[in-house]
Amino acid sequence: MAAGAVGVLKDVWPVVLILVLLAGAAAVWRSRQTAARRRRERERLAALRITLEELDAMGDRRFEYALRDLLVRDGWPARRVGGGRDQAADVIGDHPQCGRIVVQAKHTCVGGKVGSSVMYEVKGTAGPAHKADHAVVVTHGAFTRNAMAWGDRRGVRWVDREKLQRWAENGAALHELLGVSARLRPSWFKRAA
């Protein structure tokens, strides 16, 4: 039986060799295509600029994806998590030096204002639910004075229309814009309430 198998292999070895070479060539081609696609995506994100007019024209979901892309551009591997049960986190990013950031996106009508209740919700879930080092609320509109003051006192950062323009359109990195530095100790967001 073994002699029969050896005989068959002697007859078909050129076909097997050709199949192995074709499979290897296909694997190399696919690997190169994937690497080229990733390189193009990195280059696209590195040059990413989004105008306020483009942000204004977006719907809620697309706005969240745009914020995710901007975080990725700034060196925060990020993912969109928004939805009905997002626990006040539309985008979560993890930076090797700065830690975890939770972004709550508020795509309001033009001229709309985000109130304090959003800040309370983000503060209440950023640490316990998402293990965040930094909590940020981003709108293409504005914040009420109470929301900004409350956020400043409680460590919930906010990005209004002016800051959003500097981030999205002018290319400033979010962590530099907000003064987020490398973590030196565990975040107070992660402490038990």
Mind sketching the topology for me?
Blueprint lengths: L1 H45 L5 H6 L2 H14 L4 E3 L10 E5 L3 E8 L6 E2 L1 H15 L3 E6 L2 E2 L1 H10 L1 E4 L1 H9 L4 H5 L15
Parallel strand pairs: 3-5, 4-6, 5-7
Antiparallel strand pairs: 1-2, 2-3
- The amount of beta strand, in percent, is 15-25%
Order of helices and strands: HHHEEEEHEEHEHH
Helix content: 40-55%
Strand order of the largest sheet: 1-2-3-5-7
Give the averaged pLDDT, no decimals.
Answer: 86
- Largest sheet data: 5 strands, mixed
In quaternary terms, these chains amount to single chain
- Measure the end-to-end span: 74 Å
Number of helices: 7
* Count of distinct strands: 7
Structural class comes to alpha/beta
- How much is the radius of gyration in Å? 25 Å
In short:
The chain is an alpha/beta fold and 193 residues long. Helices cover 54% and strands 16% of the residues.
Can you put this structure into words, describing what you see?
The protein has 193 residues and is α/β, with parallel strands linked by helices. The chain is built from seven helices and seven strands; from the N terminus they run H-H-H-E-E-E-E-H-E-E-H-E-H-H. The protein has helices spanning 2-46, 52-57, 60-73, 116-130, 145-154, 161-169, 174-178; strands at 78-80, 91-95, 99-106, 113-114, 134-139, 142-143, 156-159. Strands 1-2-3-5-7 form a five-stranded mixed beta sheet, with helices on both faces. A two-stranded parallel sheet has the order 4-6. Strand 2 and strand 3 form a beta hairpin. Helix 4 packs parallel to helix 5. The longest helix has 45 residues, at 2-46. The radius of gyration is 25 Å and the shape is elongated. The mean pLDDT is 86.
